[in-house]
Amino acid sequence: MGGDDCYSGRTYDEAYITSFINKHQLPCNPTTAFLTPALRNRNIVLTPDLNLVGRPPILYKTVLQLLDDVYVNRVLAEDLLSKTIRYLLLVRNERQQR
Questions:
Q1: pLDDT tens digits for 36-71?
Q2: pLDDT, tens digit (0-9, with 9 covering 90-100), for 76-98
Q3: Contact yes or no for 89/24 (Cβ under 8 A)
């Protein structure tokens, strides 16, 4: 952090993400994701070849690949965000129907 292209993920989580998750009852951890043990106290660039420790491991590998896909313009950030929210709404609705 501290560079021109850096930001505090926790600040974004607390200012925007947590209230959005709660308002829409999304199946997510409403506390800041940037405190997850895989990312806590890591001051490194998140690249697809990075080995983050977490469960399930494929989730962390996939997220790193998606971030890279956005970075190199293979995927638009807006498309990734909208598809992610759509999926979370589907999961939420399925859980509510059970």
A1: 667 767 778 889 999 888 888 898 899 999 999 999
A2: 999 999 999 999 999 999 999 99
A3: yes
| Orientation angle between helical segments 57-71 and 77-97, nearest 10 degrees | 150
User: Which pair of tokens denotes residue 21?
Assistant: 């998750």
Q: Assign residue 44 a region (left: φ > 0; alpha: ψ between -120 and 50; beta: otherwise).
A: beta
Cα–Cα distance for residue pair 84/44, rounded to 1 Å: 25
Please identify which residue in the block is written with the tokens 């930001």: 7
DSSP annotation of 17 reads: I
Helices (H) and strands (E) in the chain, counts: 4, 0
The DSSP call for residue 16 is I
